Prior knowledge:
The protein is of the alpha/beta class. 43% of the residues lie in helices and 19% in strands. The chain has a five-stranded antiparallel sheet, with helices on one face.
Amino acid sequence: xxxxxxxxxxxxxxxxxxxxxxxxxxxxxxxxxxxxxxxxxxxxxxxxxxxxxxxxxxxxxxxxxxxxxxxxxxxxxxxxxxxxxxxxxxxxxxxxxxxxxxxxxxxxxxxxxxxxxxxxxxxxxxxxxxxxxxxxxxxxxxxxxxxxxxxxxxxxxxxxxxxxxxxxxxxxxxxxxxxxxxxxxxxxxxxxxxxxxxxxxxxxxxxxxxxxxxxxxxxxxxxxxxxxxxxxxxxxxxxxxxxxxxxxxxxxxxxxxxxxxxxxxxxxxxxxxxxxxxxxxxxxxxxxxxxxxxxxxxxxxxxxxxxxxxxxxxxxxxxxxxxxxxxxxxxxxxxxxxxxxxxxxxxxxxxxxxxxxxxxxxxxxxxxxxxxxxxxxxxxxxxxxxxxxxxxxxxxxxxxxxx
Length: 403
């Protein structure tokens, strides 16, 4: 099948317009030619766009649109720890529309919101990729899916809206910042000194490294641009940062048959519980650069991640979060990794928790001493994806995230 490279965003716009004019039925698959392997698919039926999908945060995106357009179906706002989603995908909403329990207008609004976000992401990736020598490639795949006839969206106005949103984002100086990143606090002490008690409380509550900028905008019912701009001053002072996060996980739950006939609520098409069920990994290290590398590796692999930059505050956070595995840097100010590991092992809760020490000095003496203080393993720096994931497979083989 022919693959075509796109070097400018107007080329993709022309291709979408061609699909519309020629009443194309099928799929337009797109991906970036880089290691992140971001992928998108646009589904057309006789020139109309029925839906779009992405391999980045598909569940988070769906949750956001349901929260905005159909809150009665979303039940909880996106980014919370255990959301129950009864209607979590396109097919679920199609069935509700056909049963007369959801209007086409509401379903169209959900689909349009998904498409707008995906268009924005594609535009941003193409624009940034051009500066980094990366490019977008696409394949046009004819296929006849009659299910797509239920609802068809005009792609042209959504594309123009996404382009305008990108221009505004650029003009605000945010072109290198993805709205799919999550704000996180790097230096809580300095942040507390420089903000009011209310602002500090709001930031520490919301910027927890689990909610993306898009998630926060929906939760707070704010426009994403002013929300992001309000965080940027703290980012410039290195009090806060932005990290990669994984998608929400879906844990299927078998419906319980109560044989009740008294209810008038909509019967669930699918009983699905969306939870942050991926293993939680903590990395104790004062290095911002190493923490960013670790966060990106773990997020892309589907793990949840917390960075503790102050080792003296590690134990209370560990007791609160109860991680599945702990990565621990050896060389830190005030206290070293051996001492922290020894303290962790004195707590009965963490007797069996894997603790992996990271160091640039990978000698026999270091390994022996690490073993003496209760370390489960040793990982040599620099931090590399294959080494980190291999270690996780060894120590968390039964809880590794799916996909």
